[in-house]
Here is the input.
Amino acid sequence: MYPGHPGRAVSLTIERTRGASTEEIQDVVAAEEPLEIRVAQGSEPPVSVSITMRTPGNDFELAIGFLCTEGIIRSPSDVEAIAYAEDALPERRYNVVQVSLSSEHPLDLSRLSRNFYTTSSCGVCGKASLDALHFQGCRPVAKDDFVVAASVLQSLPDQLRHAQEIFDQTGGLHAAGLFSGDGKRLSLQEDVGRHNALDKLIGASFLGGELPLERRVLMLSGRASFELVQKAVVARVSMIAAVGAPSSLAVDAARDFEVTLVGFLRRDGFNVYTGARRICRGA
Here is the structure.
């Protein structure tokens, strides 16, 4: 964390009531700050492409993950530099990330899928949202021999929860974790926004040259929305497992792109919505 960078958790004094008793105590809440993501190329002025509310930390990974899952960048060689914007006001410097792209990289901001859908109530039909993924060049995940034992799947929620450092302090963060087929935790990111947590996770994998993420399990701490499945499809994740429920459009996207989608994952069971062939129930 850089000097002056907003922290990931904030301490404050609160009143706590238990029964008939009230007292002042120190508590910790998850930090929430805006992050503006800018894209620059050559001598052209930078363009602001997103402002999101996030938990400070892993901001560069968040920016890269966002640009990757929105189809703006496809390879680490597309990126020349990542930095906090020096021209931002001092109090905002660590809330503005600028990604400088190679002059050889064709920059087409019209690919931003957020031009097609922004929220679950934006009024754009599901077919248009799925078509946007196809327009982005996404293809079904390979029909490989990747199989995960049911017992491994059922171990993932506890693994994810126990690895959430900031959640332990605040109780207020979502998490996205990446696991191997035998249940080994490979990486984890936390954020107040579930989509930000996943962008950070994918961004770190992108910068590490680890994409595509086939033969990997993505574990989500909450529900599986279309936006999260969309990001996983771009990263070519083979299997998505969520503690909560999927939406109908998330199921449609997972089916279209042949991703295994598991919901309501607990120690004692789970629901499979698509791609059951990748789950072995005999282990």
Observations:
- The helical segments are 59-69, 126-135, 150-162, 165-170, 194-207, 226-235, 248-256.
- The chain has two domains: 33-115, 126-280.
